Amino acid sequence: MKQQKSQDSFDRKRHIIGAILGPVCALLVYLTPIAGLADNPEAHKLLAIVTFVAFWWICEPVPIPVTSLIAPTLCVIFGVTSATDAFKAFANPMIFLFMGGFLIAKGMMVNGLDKRIAYGIMSMKWVGDSPRRIFLAIGLACMICSGWISNTATAAMMFPIALGLLEAIREMMAENGKIIDLKNYKYATGLMLMTAYACSIGGVLTPIGTPPNIIMIGFIRELAPEAPQITFFNWMIWGFIAMVLFFVVTYFILQWMFPADVKHIEGAREFIQEKKSSLGKWTRAQKNTLIAFIIAVVLWVLPGIFSAIQNISPNAINADFVKNYNAHFPEAIAAMIGGLLLFLLPVDLKKGKMTMSWKDGVSGIDWGTLLLFGGGLSIGGMVFSTGLSQWIGESLTDLLGGHPSEYLFLTLFAVTALLLSELTSNTAVANLMGPIAIATAVSLGFSPVPVCVVMALCTSLAFMLPVSTPPNAIVYASGYIPITKMIKAGVILDIIGVFVVSVPLVYFLVKAIMGV
């Protein structure tokens, strides 16, 4: 309770500060003569609006999606652009990629497919009642599920499982005459942190795993169409490697910091088996959901497979066939096919019952994220169309000393994205920093692809504070995580995640895959 009050107090102060500083700083920017923008009033006004939006996205005096709608609205009011141009980004195909992904994820949750996957992992024979293996299994279940569904939903699903296992430890200890306080029990802290961190780590696996991934891909397609474009298959190659590396580091660090003091957890195996048995047999709805999910995944990865085959044997697949496939089944359409199948595959034809109802489908779409994404694309497009991007790029180039190495450039933006994500929504950070990163990369003569990828990866490493990401907040509410322990673990993992994994991975692997 005390921890929650402290967090609420921090949030209130953040909201008040942002509400005041946003408009004040925007007004100062608007009234201050800026040499590079003297002949470009639209860009100057847009810079003031972006300043306002940045403060409100970071400090959240109103919900972030509301700010995302305020931004294009202000741009129309102050004559930066027309209403048609300001709001057309809200119909971008990338939004429908996310919408389809949300529908599939909701279908998995409504029909219990996500729990079946999680309990299936937890109940494997190799897990048993070993605390270390349970620790690993909890992390794997969280990571795999959050690669396809919301990290918040995954954390909410796995949180009570972790609590149940900790209660089993407490009861076992009590039977052996040892009374433990879970609030001061190292293993409890570690298991809670693993539950949260693995949910965030899993998001890097796919473009739809977490909003920053798809936002960065969208920015590249909209703002840098001449750059090599990232496919679903491309992302999964480096996303899988990054996910595994992040997870291995996290597992060993947390095991080192928060070791178990018992070799077996009496009743753990029975607890998991009971949870699994409660799911019963596979239902028709679960089977249909799995079919829809597999179809979407196959449609997503086929273009990458076709491309790989063509690189090995150019004549193995007809080039026109591949071109037509890509034209008729882009990622957004693949996602919508998977999502819409849930409304078409029947569970009981006599009763007219389908795999997912319209009510469940609508509630499963994170409309706020879609609005945030649309607002970010709108602002990003205007940053480029007004010429503000050129001014930002040139200004940052001068600030960086003319022409830094690309490795240093990637590191600077990776660290900036991480630090901002520790304080506010990683989705807002991606929207805010994406256009700036692309503009600066272009100004320096670098491809914008690596910097967008490294920033997306680093926004998933927000491990230091409860406010950093919803999974952190969920497990922090257990009362088993002292804030100092979360900060310490988060700092160690952030440093390793940025300097040992993210930047080297992007600089050497992503650049090689994309040919930039």
Commentary on this structure:
The longest helix is centred in the last third of the chain and has 32 residues, at 483-514. The chain is an all-alpha fold and 516 residues long. The protein is 74% helix and 1% strand. The protein has a two-stranded antiparallel sheet.
Span between termini: 51 Å
User: What is the total tally of β strands?
Assistant: 2
Biggest sheet character: 2 strands, antiparallel
Class derived from helix and strand content = mainly alpha
Instruction: Give, in order, the helices and strands.
Output: HHHHHHHHHHHHHHHEEHHHHHHHH
> Which consecutive residue ranges, at least 5 long each, have pLDDT under 50?
none
Helix content: over 70%
**Lateral strand order in the biggest sheet:** 1-2
Calculate the mean pLDDT score and round it: 86
> What share of residues are in beta strands?
under 5%
Radius of gyration: 24 Å
Q: Tell me, what's the shape?
A: globular
Q: Please count the helical segments.
A: 23
Index terms:
23 helices; mainly alpha; two-stranded antiparallel ribbon; 516 residues; globular
Chart the SSEs and their pairings:
Elements: H1 2-31, H2 41-59, H3 64-77, H4 83-87, H5 93-110, H6 113-122, H7 131-146, H8 151-175, H9 186-202, H10 211-223, H11 232-257, H12 268-277, H13 284-312, H14 319-328, H15 331-344, E1 346-348, E2 353-354, H16 358-364, H17 367-385, H18 388-399, H19 406-423, H20 426-444, H21 448-459, H22 470-476, H23 483-514
